[in-house]
Every structure is written in C-alpha cells, then in structure tokens.
Amino acid sequence: MKLADLEVNRLGFGAMRVLGPSVWGEPPDRPNAHRVLRRAVELGVNFFDTAESYGPHTDETVIAEALHPYPKGLVIATKCGIARPTPGRWDADGKPEKLRRDLEGSLKRLKLERIDLYQLHTIDSKVPLEESLGVLVDAQRAGKVRHIGVSNFNVKQLERARKVATVVSVQNRYSLADRSSEDVLAHCEKNGIAFLPWYPLGDGSALRLARVKKLAEKKKATSAQIAIAWLLAKSPVMLPIPGTGKVAHLEENVAAAKLKLSKEDLAALD
Fold it and tell me: Taking the CB of the first residue and of the last residue of the chain, which one, N or C, has fewer CB atoms within 10 A?
C-alpha cells in the first residue's frame, strides 16, 4: 500500500513488545529482541513502528542495534509527545520544547538524518494541538521529518490537524473487539490517509470470541491470524502493526497476510 509517497507491505511490526514488562527499561533478552527484529525484515516486513517513550528511548536504540544500516525501502515510524516518569505512567506532553527534544533524541538513537513518519503520540490538553503539530511542520520544512502522522485523534481533532499539517497517517486503537474509531477509519478512507490500528488483537478479547474461534478452526488458522486477516480485509488504508517479543509469534502473525477471507467469512465475523 501507499503511505504518502512511500510503498510499504500491508503488515507492519509494532516494536514495543521486544521490551520488558510495562514497555519499560531494557529488553529482558537483548539478543532475542535483535533476532525478532531481524526476522521481521527477513519475512518481508518493511514498516516498523516505535516511539521515544518506549523504554523510554530503549526501543529505538534496540532497533538501530539490530537493523542499522537499514535495508533499502525500510520505513521506520516513531512518535513524540509522551512523558514516562515511572513504568505505569504515560503522560501527554505536547510542549514544543519537549517535542523538539524528542525529535533530536529519536534521530540520534535511530541513526537517521530524517524520520520517514513522525507521529504526535497524543494530544496534550494543556497545549493547543496546532502548537504541537507546528513543531512537526517546522521539522518537516527543515528536512528532519519526511511525513507527519497523528495518534489517538478523533475526527474533529483530525480535521483541525489537517488544517495545520499534511497528515498521512492516523494511529488509533482498533480491533475486532474495539471499533470505537470506526468514524476515524471512514475519514481516513475518504481522504487517502493510512490507518494504523494499535492493539490490533485487543487485550485478547477478540481472540476469545466464539465466531473468531469457529472461523479459525474452519480455516485451520489461529485466532490471532483471523483477527489480523480481518483487519487487512476491512479497509485498503489499514496498516496493522501487531507486535511480539517471540520469533514464533512473529512468524504466525506475518502468515496471516496470506489468509484470504471470503465475504461469508467477513459477514460471520461482523
């Protein structure tokens, strides 16, 4: 699929799960984290999603350790605007000075001169979104950011954002079991904006649905593969980014891209 002027395979990789519990600190097994990331590339994944808040900072460092110098065509997306004072906290911080620090840190850790997709992680209620996005627009003009994306936005916020910046992607929570961003997805389809569903398998609730289990048995697939295949069939702008810290799970997830669901299958899931 097209992500602005970039061409990416439709199943990406969310890299946060290679870290430890609460997405905090160092990966419990660094060599394993490297193996997972490299295996994703071997399997044809060419879109990786991360954030400076994962670790914080650690995830970007691990990606560079495993994959730099990056293969041609590899797209790395990262995010800014979240503070992590403790493992259990994800605090919105969209102040311009914070976002500028985030950007410089990400460039250094990822060993990049320009980030292909730089996303505002969330809206800080204390800072106008136009002010936060303005920092990303300035970075884009300076050649440090290629494209701008947003995350955790509703339709009204997205419309506001598009008056300030050319937004090429939206990353919102979405899965078979959580379709609260259905209107955002429709807006993305109408405007040719990529939609990255985070938490694409939910908290496991989607995998426990009777209709998912039944179709998985019929297709001789896993419930996770059914849930991912449903996302791919749902919309041409959908770019799922399932993550894992295990090679076996990664291979299982990537195999879902080859799973074809019929109209009857899709109707049964809906």
Answer: C
Collapsing DSSP to helix, strand or coil, 232 comes out as helix
Find, among 204, 141, 215, the residue nearest to 177 by Cα: 204
Which member of 54, 70, 118, 199 is catalytic? 54
Residues 172, 198 contacting (CB under 8 angstroms):
yes
Place of tokens 């449903």: 230
Query: Residue 152 gets which letter from DSSP?
Result: S
Q: What is the largest CA-CA distance in the chain?
A: 53
118 as an active site residue: the answer is no
- Joined together, the tokens standing for residue 74 give 């590899």
**Amino acid, single-letter form, for residue 30:** R
**pTM score > 0.85 for this model?**
yes
- 212-232: string of b/e by CB count within 10 Å (b at 16+)? beebbeeeebbbbbbbbbbbb
- Beta bridge partners of residue 7, listed in sequence order: 2
- Per-residue pLDDT of the chain (270 residues), as tens digits, is 999 999 999 999 999 999 988 999 999 999 999 999 999 999 999 999 999 999 999 999 999 999 999 999 999 999 999 999 999 999 999 999 999 999 999 999 999 999 999 999 999 999 999 999 999 999 999 999 999 999 999 999 999 999 999 999 999 999 999 999 999 999 999 999 999 999 998 778 888 899 999 999 999 999 999 999 999 999 999 999 999 999 999 999 999 999 999 999 999 998
Query: Where does the chain have alpha helices with state H?
Result: 30-42, 58-67, 96-110, 129-141, 155-164, 182-191, 210-219, 223-234, 247-255, 263-269
CB 258 within 8 A of CB 219: no
